[in-house]
Amino acid sequence: MGVAVNISKTYTYKDYKELKDTLLEIIDGVPYLMSPSPTVEHQRILRKLLLILSDYFQNGICEVFSAPLDVIFKNEEETIDEAKNVVQPDIFVVCDNKKITDKNIIGAPDLIIEIVSSSSQSLDYVKKLNLYEKYKVKEYLIVNPINKTILQYVYENDSYASPNIYTKEDIVKIIYFEGLLIDFKKVF
What stretches in the chain show pLDDT beneath 70? Predict the structure, then answer.
């Protein structure tokens, strides 16, 4: 059973670890409760994307991960326990092995893919978009199984450019990884 979350408190990674039975993410110190379980469609999309990415990264230069695994974004002056941003992206790729610890990832992944659910839309489209931009995630894809669209944000010139918008009929070229193409006809 989860612990009550005090929404007027600023949460840190230290607090997050103490709430181990509560499914939540923390963005800018604000806790966001997560749904207990994604839908079957969400999991199907996740599995197909993981297979595509795992095949592409089989050479071992970068590693592919999926939720549940904590990604901690911290400012330089913060310790890990003081960090106020802890999320569990659906899928992410890390190319800098120094960011990988036994328990979590510390720092920005190179690529993040979030699969939207009806309860996570404001988080994925607004809060996480701003967080990932702030911490310079190179590429962020938002996959929406409801309307079968994909938004691709690419970090350049200190911000995300306007998103590239795709549908279930498109092949998406991942900008930062040469030759990585995702055929969404095979995903949806």
Answer: 1-7
